[in-house]
Amino acid sequence: MLKAKVLLVGPRESGKSVLANFVSESIEGIGSYSPTQGVRILEYEKPNLNGNSKGAGCRFELWDCSGDQKFETCWPALMKDSHGVIIIFNPELPSHLKEIEMWYSCFVQQQPLPDSQCLLVAHHKPGSASDTENLSLAYPLNKLKLIHSNLEDDPEDVRMEFMKYFRSIITFINESREREEMLIIS
After folding, report:
1. What backbone torsions phi and psi does residue 105 show, to the nearest 5 degrees?
2. If you average pLDDT over every residue of the chain, what do you get?
3. Planar angle of CA 40, 23, 18, nearest 5 degrees
4. pLDDT at site 181
5. Helix (H) or strand (E) holding 97
6. CA 135, CA 115: separation in Å to the nearest integer?
7. Nearest CA to 4 among 150, 169, 175, 143?
8. In this structure, are strands 39-46 and 58-65 parallel, antiparallel, or unpaired?
């Protein structure tokens, strides 16, 4: 079975743990807000992500990283061997819009990870106004895939977007393996 490591990063109180629980179908920590200390790793298996029974499936490690910058010294260790980064933010907080540039710089550009392996998620909290659909993000964030998540209004749409992203991660891993095998052969 293929194994993929995906980091969920972003400002404090943006909804990283909520989305990690939702995507991994975990009920851990549901309820009141409790800040993640350092990192929380959720394992999530998807047997037939590509929709056919031939695929071996994939085990995803979702690394729910704390949004507290006091853990910044741990970030290089968290980034090691990651295949993707999901940057989650609350689009209603102007401070989050500024902060996501720092998260992108640290977790995507410094790895270096291709932009295709990065997903931006504008997470709308329950009861929030969803009038932020037309976000204008500065370069280089504006070239990244951006999805809006609202688990009250459209949970299945959110799940489908994550599945598309996970499929792209699997494709990236498989293509990288094939390139490495070809280098060994030649």
Report:
1. -60, -45
2. 87
3. 60
4. 87
5. helix 94-104
6. 19
7. 169
8. antiparallel
What is the token pair recorded at 137? 């993000």
Contact 60, 25 (CB under 8 A): no
**What pTM was estimated for this model as a whole?**
0.89
Cβ–Cβ under 8 Å, residues 35 and 133 = no
For residue 171 the two structure tokens come to 């494709």
Of 37, 36, 46, 32, the C-alpha closest to 3 is 46
10 Å CB burial of residue 176 (0-12, 13-18, 19+) is exposed
Closest residue by Cα to residue 152 from 133, 169, 130, 173 = 130
Q: How far apart are CA 48 and CA 54, in angstroms?
A: 8
> Is-cis flag, bond preceding 47, omega within 30?
no
The tokens of 147 are what?
């999805």
Q: Which residue has the tokens 């599945």?
A: 163
For 120-176, write each residue's pLDDT tens digit: 999 988 777 655 567 788 888 999 999 999 888 888 999 999 999 999 999 999 888
Nearest one of 137, 77, 135, 136 to 107, comparing CA atoms: 77
